[in-house]
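re: ur question from yesterday

yeah so i grabbed the chain u mentioned. its 208 aa long if i counted rite. heres the sequnce exactly as i have it in my notes:
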Amino acid sequence: SKGLVLGPVLGAHFTAMTKQSEKGINNSKLEQTSTFGKSYGLNIGYIINHHWSVGMEWIYNSDEGQNFKENVKGQIVDKSIVLDYMKIPFYFKYTQKFITRYDKCPITLNIVGGIHYSKLKTVNTYVDNQIAPLGVNYNEHEWGMLGGVEFDIFPTNRLFFTVGSRMTFNADLKNFPRVRGKDGSDPFSVQTGVYAKINYVFSFKKKS
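ran it thru and got these structure tokens back, copy pasting raw so excuse formatting
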């Protein structure tokens, strides 16, 4: 049914950053790995009809960054960048109901696509688990695109649960609509993850 959707959202994801420090001390090569992080925030949306919805999320905290190892004079040094972003995704959702035997708890399949804005809250850099400057680039404001698949489970007409998987890419906002600047030096990242939502539908029917 039509109505305003509101509820919390929790997520877990892996982030892979590119165009960070590809060379270390004395041009030594860096071995980069993706990082694991979590996110949480609030979801708000509107169900337009049986097939289409629009939504927005306020992700108060999203842990991102990059881990890498550097060989310095034969000794492996662990380095890491820890970034904390606030994100605001905007998305459209196309819904298709599953045919199941459990009519009391219908399930829908959703295709999600949209854009998002991110603002950097904090940044920390580490060398061998000790806070230390690394002299790397990072984006204070980002834009990006997202796409994913999710399932909605409806135990009642008003309350439903969402589980899904999503991929996003994130680039420096000053280069919009380009992913990189003209010199190709600005970092961007690719993020894949899963998330869950608890949703409640507020219906505003006119009284006859």
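noticed a couple things. DSSP finds no helices and ten strands in the chain. also Residues 32 and 39 are 22 Å apart (CA to CA).
anyway ttyl
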